[in-house]
């Protein structure tokens, strides 16, 4: 055998071995393990509704793991500062996150987050703090999961009107008007604006004569609402007959203020909140609050988890159902003493 022929033979053997190894590998190869990394960023660490929603989201995502897909969830917060939140988002993207769930600090300032997400092709599910339409439509992989705030305002107004109509003693001074205080969440928040507007409108439409004593911003926060109410109680003593609160935490702040001021419960106003968190459900059950509106965090968290998995896999079963291809609108439910038991431990 010539030297040339031998070299050719050896080369053929090498090619054959390489081919065998390659095809052998691909035949036996296990499907590559997929990891879905979800980055969740809330606006603060200090909001019980948001914390409950984020915990629920994490649990749902974890329950969607399969043997082919591990799901890693990292939850951080923006410490009430949009710039801090932008930086956290950037860090999450650098760390390899696949889908972002963002609860904006400032719902009018998502531009940097949107730009980063688009550049890196990371879908974003905004939740609870709604970007305006012009921002949400800047890129096709932006979504919003939340509620229709107007609905919660109407339901709160209806629940309060129904209670007041069937309890004439709410008008403690019997002047035919209900003296009221409104506790507002946060200037510029879509939920605060619509809840305030529609609960008052609905009460009036239902024939309740209202007299406004004071509107107070308390940032969704129990402690702040308690402080505001302390001042109002010193000013108005027992003449406040109704408190309408944009959320339960602030309603519970009002409850605490009356308790600490030492008023007997028959001198308290009737108090209505929104969210249906456990403390508020307890308060409705024990008669410290008269009603709330259930803000369905379980439903919102489930939708977000499903959407996160779907956008990652490039599927669109749930996406197809979204309003305008982008919005999931969860339904609120009225809660008062007649149905409160149904809402514990959802
Ligand atoms: C909830 C509030 C919460 C706020 C935060 C609202 O939908 O009702 O309890 O503080 O969202 O953005
Ligand atoms: Ca009155």
Automatic annotation (TrEMBL):
> Where primarily located?
other
Q: A GO molecular function for this record?
A: metal ion binding
- Cite the Pfam families for this sequence: Peripla_BP_4
Classification via InterPro entries: Bact_Solute-Bind_Prot2, MglB-like_PBP1, Peripla_BP_I, SBP_2_dom
Oxidoreductase as UniProt keyword: no
Location(s) in or outside the cell: Cell envelope
SUPFAM superfamilies for this protein: Periplasmic binding protein-like I
Question: How would you summarize the oligomeric state and partners of this protein?
Answer: The ABC transporter complex is composed of one ATP-binding protein (MglA), two transmembrane proteins (MglC) and a solute-binding protein (MglB).
The name of this protein is: D-galactose/methyl-galactoside binding periplasmic protein MglB
